[in-house]
Amino acid sequence: MQQFLNTALGGLTLGMVYAAFALALVLIWRSTRVVNFAQAPMAMVTTFVALAVIEAGHSYWLGFAAALFSGLLLGAFLERVVVRPVEGKAEINAVILTLGLFIVLHALAAVVFGNRFRSFPAPFGIRGLEVGDHTIALTGFGIFTVLAVVVVMALLVALFRFTDVGLRMRAAAHSPEVARMLGVRVGRMLTLGWALASVVGSLAGLLIAGGSLVHPGYMDSVVVYGFVAAVLGGLDSPVGAVVGGVLLGLSLSFVSGYVGSQLVALAALGILMLVLTLRPGGLFAHTPARRV
Amino acid sequence: MRARLPRSLPESALARHLFLAAIGFVVVVLVLQGVSDFRRFQLAELAYLGTAAGGLSVLTGLNGQISLGHGALMAVGAYVTALLLPDRDASTPLPLVVLAAVAATLVVGALVGAAAARLHGPYLAGATLALAVAVPGIALYFKETLGGEQGLRVSLPDPPGWLLDAAYFVTGQDLTTSGYVALLAWVTLLVTYVLLANLARGRVGRRWRAVRDHEVAAELAGIDLGRARVSAFVVSAAAAGAAGAMLALTVRLAAPSSFSLTLSLTLLAAVVLGGLGSLAGALAGAALLTFLPQVVTDLGTDLGLSDIQAAELTPLVYGLVMVAVVLVAPTGLAGTVRSFVARRRPRRALLTTSKGTTP
Questions:
Q1: Which residue of B has its CA nearest to A256?
Q2: Residues in B touching A266 (Cβ below 8 Å)
Q3: Where are the beta strands (DSSP E) in B102-233?
Q4: Which CA distances in Å does A113 have to A50, B141, B314?
Q5: How many CA atoms lie within 13 A of A272 on its CB side?
Q6: C-beta separation of B49 from B289 below 8 A
């Protein structure tokens, strides 16, 4: 029973991180119809920025802010300079481009920050909380993870629902031609979308790194899990991404706890295949059949 | 197309491909005879990367399916080879081993391909990416059979007597182990390329291209989209399986670290650079994968980087090349050369006719 509870709690925390990462993928997919496979190394680079700030003697929170800010800049820069030319072209070009960026950022980080494991601090305890005489697998940092993702989601919902910029971004994503005629600067909205997505991705990177080891490749499998979570939710819906992330986190945690941690990626592949075969539109599809 | 070929080449596609392959074989034998053992090892590496890249190039270029899972498919071929060649005494005949590796990869390819046939673009890329990440975990999980992190050792059977005699007769030297392996890998490459080139030129290749270019039109013409996609994936997977078998024989080890995500991504980089759909381009891309690391790493150390940093410059170059090719020359090396030639030809033709008509 205790193992079951702990596996579930671990899965929930992990699921929130996947949710954040899936959310970043969905934000970009909605506006530019590009699955940003470079999201993982982008987040990794910003985590290394945070580590550099922290190792220079500043506080964790300054590093945290530096990572999110560098994420904002990196996202905006990549969209404007590299991705803009392939938007609206054959989709295979965008896929190859983001994979190229994946390799570039990976190698760049290894050259600049070194290709070894380094420990990343956590602002809160990473030991399980004690309830009675049992230690449960919910850590202080785990609670922070869940809260951080929930806050970011709330902020994003508020942005898209209640602000003028959010409305413009939705218009630009939904129907660029019409939005342009109505005076929305579509290009700028797309850049902003990438920047925001990159911030959310950075947050996911920081949450995974907290209290563990970082390495240029530490986010590689997360891009797969984030993608699976996003597809679970339908790749179009932010709410779906979050629910998909939590579901995936729980399932993978049980696979890891009861079968073997080596098979987690295989389980993710299985779940992805199942979803794409049975419900290609994701669990919450309300539009009829969509080409996948 | 036919008119542009030199007159000396045979008319039928099969005869022409076999003729080119025979020339290729002679060149390979001559080159292998003249280089050091280290270069032979590198050339074997070039051959197996080229075999896998050829398969991937046909899949992506002719059928429009992208696969990030070819590294994983190579792993299947390599592990089957390793399981069949545990030690020198109990070794299975080599052609059988390679056929078994190809057959096993065919089965996996059919499974993946059947799922992939329903997907396109980013969905397909994501699914095959998941495959590339998932497969090494299987080797780690079944530690007893598949050797875990250390992997399985492969024992290379001795070359047959007639080959040793023939090699001595032709080249005047004894056939070294790395020479034997390189020869095997190159023969595999040539056989694979002849088969791929024939498929691509014939009815099957036309169907693949039709599906790539216009699904609805292809379907109206009576092509079964799913079958065309699965067959392209299966053929491509078979090439990756043969490549995996050659990899196992060359490095004499099948270990998860050989089949990281990086392998799949760099294969894609090679194919994109060479030009999607072109076998010559795939070979050129594979040559770059083989020889670039040393050049770039030396350059890095000359610039004052540490060895570890310099080693990371190679993937950096691959990545930059991929981005640059997509942005600047989406048809890759082969396409750029072809369009350059095509652009020059009519101009020359125009020149001669204008000279002819104006007095």
A1: B141
A2: 134-135, 137-138
A3: 152-153
A4: 12, 32, 16
A5: 31
A6: yes
**Cβ contact A100–B127 (<8 Å):** no
Q: State the residue for tokens 């392959």.
A: B21
Which residues in chain A touch residue B322, judged by CB atoms under 8 angstroms apart?
A: 96-97, 99-100, 103
d(CA B336, CA B259) in angstroms, rounded, equals 31
Which run of H or of E encompasses A138? strand A134-139
A96, A106, A266 ranked by CB distance to B326: nearest: A96
CB nearest to B127's CB, from A94, A107, A273: A273
| Tokens coding B285 | 């891309």
Task: Tell me if A95 and B118 make a contact (CB, 8 A cut-off).
Answer: no
Token pair recorded at residue B287: 């040559």
Residues of A in contact with B69 (CB under 8 A): none
CA–CA distance, A214 with B305 (Å, rounded to integer): 22
pLDDT in tens, chain B (359 residues): 444 555 566 678 888 888 888 888 888 888 888 888 888 888 999 999 999 999 999 998 888 888 888 999 999 999 999 988 887 666 678 888 899 999 999 999 998 888 878 777 788 888 888 888 888 888 888 888 888 888 888 888 888 878 888 888 877 777 788 888 899 999 999 999 999 999 888 888 888 888 888 888 888 888 888 888 899 999 999 999 999 999 999 998 888 888 888 888 888 888 888 888 888 889 998 998 888 888 888 888 888 777 777 888 888 888 888 888 888 877 667 777 777 777 766 655 555 444 443 33
Task: Pick the residue of A112, A222, A269 with the most B CBs within 10 A to test the interface with B by mutation.
Answer: A269
Distance CA A220, CA A105 (A): 12
Instruction: Measure the CA–CA gap between A255 and A239, rounded to whole angstroms.
Output: 24
Using a 10 angstrom Cβ sphere, with 0-12 exposed, 13-18 middle and 19 or more buried, the burial of residue B30 is: exposed
Question: Which of B252, B338, B303 lies closest to B61 in space, CA to CA?
Answer: B338
* Distances A163 to A179, A186, A197, B23, B230 between C-alpha atoms, Å: 16, 16, 17, 69, 47
Cα atoms in the Cβ-side hemisphere of radius 13 Å centred on B346: 5
The answer, as to whether pTM is greater than 0.90, is no
Chain A CB contacts of B121 under 8 Å are 91-92, 95
Please indicate whether, in this complex, the C-beta atoms of A37 and B129 are within 8 angstroms of each other: yes
B117 contacts B249 by C-beta, under 8 angstroms: no
